[in-house]
């Protein structure tokens, strides 16, 4: 079975924001484990690192889209909470 990986790195200069993002996303991304793929989240030197692994292109695409939408929603919520 073919195997693929997507690595997304977000550079976050504000360490408080990095910690909030990490703790907000971690419980949600733990649920992104299936027989066909999984997602791991790491903090590393001011970066949020998302590793997506999948057995085929369609699951990689689906997981990547879900993760990116979740990150976008989280950032939008944080922006509204702290900038309004």
CATH topology: TATA-Binding Protein
- Poorly predicted ranges: none
Structural class: alpha+beta
Overall form: elongated
Give the DSSP E fraction (strand runs of 2 or more residues).
25-35%
- How many domain units? 1
* Mean pLDDT across residues: 90
CATH class: Alpha Beta
The profile of the biggest β sheet is: 3 strands, antiparallel
Percent helix: 40-55%
Strand order of the largest sheet: 1-3-2
Counted by DSSP, the helix tally is: 2
Walk me through this protein's architecture.
This protein is 51% helix and 29% strand. With 84 residues, the chain is of the alpha+beta class. The protein has a single domain (4-73), classed as 2-Layer Sandwich (TATA-Binding Protein), CATH 3.30.310. The chain has a three-stranded antiparallel beta sheet, with helices on one face. It is elongated, with a radius of gyration of 13 Å.
